[in-house]
Records
---
Amino acid sequence: MGISVDDVARNKAMVAKLSLPFPMLADPEASVIAAYGVYREKEQRARPAAFVVGRDLSMAYRYIGRDFADRPLTKELLDALETVKDSPRKELRSDPLPPGPRQPADTGRTPFPLEHLPPYMRGVNFALEAIGERFAEDQRLQKDVATYRAIAQDYMKHGLATLKLRGS
């Protein structure tokens, strides 16, 4: 499942737009997001993060992005899911979470049209290529550029696949 500070209607639209095979849960107060340690007070949103939790409640995978663009690759998530698919089920028990640090609000942001994703990510890829060429001697930056290019290419690949699946 996915968890977002967005409301139920926005999450339903995201599931439909991306043909997601899992539900998106609304956490407008960021209670769960804060409990996982990925809430950013200044931006009033979550850091991109992915957790794969087995049915036995073991944490098989944990990825917390450094910034809004830092996300795990799809293959990493699928590999992590594979490791927990046969785990035995354990009953979940939890105390209620305290109220989250965020007041639910409509940000007024409009959803990014899926059709715009492939050309947008191509532009991101070209910009990263230019930055990489300009700072070829900076090995740390080269590593970041390679990481973000892989993320952009992953998004573009899966965006195109989703568009094809939807028949657009």
---
Amino acid sequence: MAIFSGLLFLTLPTGGVGGSFIAFYGVFLALFLTAGLGSGSTFQMISVIFRKLTMDRVKAEGGSDERAMREAATDTAAALGFISAIGAIGGFFIPKRLAHL
């Protein structure tokens, strides 16, 4: 993502000359692709980590595999829902703040 962010500036016109819309569009698409991959892999890691932690905790307490899977699914869903809500709040307040600048 950092590389594509840097490349994006190279596609912009400087001093009223240069720049390439096709290059800008291509780099911007690549930037969004890498951002989506990063976001998706982060959400995947969160679910795997929460599932493992919850299953280990339930099994350490003497719970069954079925109970561990049920609690892991609930805890993982709650964590992902909370994290998504934080992201949605950021997606609301950041544009609102930038609109007032």
---
Amino acid sequence: DVDHLMKPGDMVHLDGIEILGVPAYNEGKKFHPPENEWLGYVFTVDGVTYYHSGDTDFL
């Protein structure tokens, strides 16, 4: 079951983990346009922050 679909800018807290959805897209290419609202993620666990970019160009 899906309880919540995230969009860019959404933040959720799950079992002490903060999860922030950030935009993941390619500039000037058709296959990953920003309007699809696909995500990368920023996770914060015990004060340490991790970034998973998803499939994206350098932004």
---
Amino acid sequence: MKLFEVLPAVQAFLSQPGRLFIGGSWQDAADGRRFAVENPATEETLTEVAQGGARDVDAAVAAARSAFNGAWSLQSPAQRGLLLFRLADLLDQHREELAQLITLENGKPIAAARGEAASAATILRYFAGWPTKIEGSTLPVSPASGAPMLNYTLREPVGVCALIVPWNFPLNMCVWKLGPALATGCVAVLKPAEQTPLVAIRLVQLIEAAGFPAGVVNLVTGLGAETGAPLAEHPDVDKIAFTGSTQVGRLIAQAATRNMKRSRWN
């Protein structure tokens, strides 16, 4: 795709450096570093984004924890679903913009990128329908003593989820992980692949526009060793979801097991 074919909204987006999103605030990395994002088809620099580090990860996890203990825990299941439906509508409204960002930073053909952008809203609408349908159950028991007893299960959110996504489906990998986390009342720190952070940044801008409370979704862009590693081993992260290479998955598994995090690898 030539630059003159790009939407004005995408050109405006690329004209500004990408920033971290922590606690409802767009900010530079703590040490001010940035890294370049290239178009793999032309090797031209598209823009620069914040290169987060361990201090930024700490701030993002703290913001997520605060939101989990505060405003987000007060949201009803119906309210969570409404926010996800609202976000899905925004993804539909900005579909071509998202598709062009995918093509520019990922290199996939625009037809494939448009398919990915179109399916993102469908994925979110699926998860948006779940919050009001997740329920516990009561269990009949017959204690030997004959004393009355009530047993029941209660499903509760896990807490702070670290979501590390790869470059091959840079938008859909984000919504595949964010959708179930937010639907079930969890909060998130999202770390996109360093090759494809732009569509994740635009997604989080739309999450902010949808009205999610500050700190519910946080974004830390950066290199794997400097952001992914401290996120995986962070003591206040309750669950980690990772999609990527076997080699990196093993490293994340080792880091997660040091404090017995719930983990999911694909």
